[in-house]
Amino acid sequence: MVSIEGRFTNSSDIKVAIVVARFNDLVTNKLLSGCLDCLSRHGIDTSESSSQLDIAWVPGSFELPLVCQTLAKTGRYQVVITLGAVIRGDTPHFDVVINESSKGIAAVSRETGIPVIFGVLTTDTMQQALERAGVKSNLGWAYALQAIEMCSLMKALN
Ligand code: INI
User: Is position 93 annotated as part of the catalytic site?
Assistant: First the structure.
């Protein structure tokens, strides 16, 4: 029996792309800062001059799949992290945006073979989103950790 799992050490050789939605940027900027903190504490250079990290910005979560796919297809990255916040509020748009975003992101991962982390918060209120983006805990940190684990796992599998 072979047990294969990802590790959280030796991340210094990976290259990461993050795609962030500007919509609800009060939330997505906080997710990004949690994400960068985790990457940095696991040995990934997150400085302005980093050759290990690129960050792309899109208008909203609906646009995440296309840009994510474009980056994944370049072959330059071992993992792509998506960050967004879809908040139900009063808008019926909510269901359309989250459905397209989640299905699109999952499809990119399967089609390209590059792990894509689904970092799109889906909440009923802005308060709930903020609680998950740093007011209580920061899921951006968890998304970065999952990215590191998936890089390591894919390397072990291949
Ligand atoms: N985009 C989000 O990222 N979150 C939302 O909550 C949201 N809502 O509710 O409308 C949202 N809409 C914008 C959408 O992602 C696209 O940018 C827009 O429709 C243009 O294609």
Answer: yes
